[in-house]
Amino acid sequence: MTNAENPVDRERLSAIVKAYDVRGIVGDALTEQSVEALAAAFVDEVGAAGGKVVVGHDMRDSSPVFAEAFARGATSRGADVVAIGLCSTDESYYASGILNAPAAMFTASHNPAAYNGIKFSRAGAQGISLDTGLAAIRDRAGDYLEQGVTPVAAPGTVQPLDVLADYAAYLRSLVDLTGIRPLKIVVDAGNGMGGLTVPAVLGTAAGLPELPLEIVPLYFELDGTFPNHEANPLEPANLVDLQKAVVEHGADLGLAFDGDADRCFVVDERGGAVTPSAVAAIVAVREIARVAALGESDVNVIHNLITSRFVPETIEAAGANPVRTRVGHSLIKDRMKETGAVFGGEHSAHYYFRDFWGADNGMLAAMHVLAEFGAQQAPLSELADRFTPYALSGEINSVVDDVPSAYTRVVEAFTGRGDFDELDGLTVFGTTAEDEPFWWFNVRPSNTEPLLRLNVEGADAATMTVVRDEVLALIRS
């Protein structure tokens, strides 16, 4: 991973620094050398010399080595590293929040085994994007690659810290599951970090009292080669094993976590996927009611522009203010802080909580669903149907040779047929008569690939299908 024969240069480093994190193929531009440089640059950017930096990692084969390389770079610039070891991404956010220290988490999330990466946080689990410091880290790391890292006179230290038990206890303090009816749950950890955190939070592995939950584990063995399926539940093919197991075990529901366990997807008792928008609406109602009972008024809840129309409708009906944003976890963390929002939900199953330093936590969202579902007797499919009145296409990616031309074809075809919004890509809200079913769609170019991403919603399945097929034909023609 040092790649001494082909050292990383500034250009290759820039290729792995994405909009919100660092992500690349291990041994290419992502090497111990580049990680040390990024670590030194991170310490400089966040002013961590003389203070603490949290470093955690997932179960990928390269992650422990990279975490050690990061510690070398960080301590050389004067930071004291708090090494929390194997953890989920939201566990690293917990450590960043509770210690009020910047953090680096080594994971490539749902990407295949050949990849790894770094998710950075400022102190208090605040996000970092290209616009808010990541570009500066990239540029300074480029300098260090060319000139070498200059060690400070008083280098930092490395101290291990196990935060899993405290993390689990903290989540339990936010959502009380002790009084729900007994539930049987199949959990697919995808050989990712959910295999560590689920037994701690929902079970007794961290020494917490037993909950009225029977957990049927699926792929809990930590294995960064992902021998069973990719740890990306957003892809329907990766939910098949969970859906089958829920039905076979007669379970009440299923949960699927991605590789670093910061996202959670829900499956009902029939094996049907519950949309992230439905989960966002369910959690939003609970969080709004909770703070309203404490006397809070003028409550804000964030949703990105691709969630179902039902999400802002639900937020308004619950007496709160929906705040519409662009897609992107660092951006939404910033908006959580700016607006004081109690909760935020994305179509990609990232869920953000004010009580979790504005950071995303899939486990916490899952606990809210369990609490809501376990407080009543109806099957989950019935609860989910109430929060899914409209038809969503899900995100459809198309490889396009000429993205601008495809984008232009869509604009020309729908000019005069709807209202245009360019907050994030192009959103078209259909101009319809009062007795006609509504529709909207969003087309966004990928920042890193020759892709166009399409999301469509209609008042019913027939309307959504017609719009989806027309836009896809324009994109792919």
Q: What structural class results from the helix and strand content? A: alpha/beta
User: Regions with pLDDT < 50 over 5+ consecutive residues?
Assistant: none
Mean pLDDT: 96
Rg, Cα atoms, Å = 22 Å
Shape descriptor reads: globular
Plain-language structure description:
Its cofactor is Mg(2+). Belongs to the phosphohexose mutase family. Residues 395-472 form the Alpha-D-phosphohexomutase C-terminal domain. Pfam families: PGM_PMM_I, PGM_PMM_II, PGM_PMM_III, PGM_PMM_IV. The relative contact order is 0.10. This protein has 477 residues and is α/β, with parallel strands linked by helices. Strands 1, 2, 3, 4, 5, 6 and 7 form a seven-stranded mixed β-sheet that branches. Strands 17, 18, 19, 20, 21 and 22 form a six-stranded antiparallel β-sheet that branches. α1 (10-16) packs antiparallel against α5, α2 packs across α5 and α9 crosses α12. It starts with 9 loop residues before the first helix and ends with a helix. The protein folds into four domains: 10-162, 3-Layer(aba) Sandwich (Alpha-D-Glucose-1,6-Bisphosphate, Chain A, domain 3), CATH 3.40.120; 165-272, Alpha-D-Glucose-1,6-Bisphosphate, subunit A, domain 3 (Alpha-D-Glucose-1,6-Bisphosphate, Chain A, domain 3), CATH 3.40.120; 276-386, Alpha-D-Glucose-1,6-Bisphosphate, subunit A, domain 3 (Alpha-D-Glucose-1,6-Bisphosphate, Chain A, domain 3), CATH 3.40.120; 391-476, Alpha-D-phosphohexomutase, C-terminal domain (TATA-Binding Protein, 2-Layer Sandwich). It is globular, with a radius of gyration of 22 Å. It has helices at residues 10-16, 32-46, 63-76, 89-99, 134-147, 164-174, 194-201, 240-249, 276-293, 310-317, 329-339, 362-374, 380-386, 403-414, 461-476; strands spanning 22-25, 52-57, 80-86, 103-106, 115-122, 126-127, 158-160, 183-188, 213-218, 253-257, 264-267, 273-274, 300-304, 321-325, 343-345, 351-353, 391-392, 396-399, 418-421, 426-430, 439-445, 451-458.
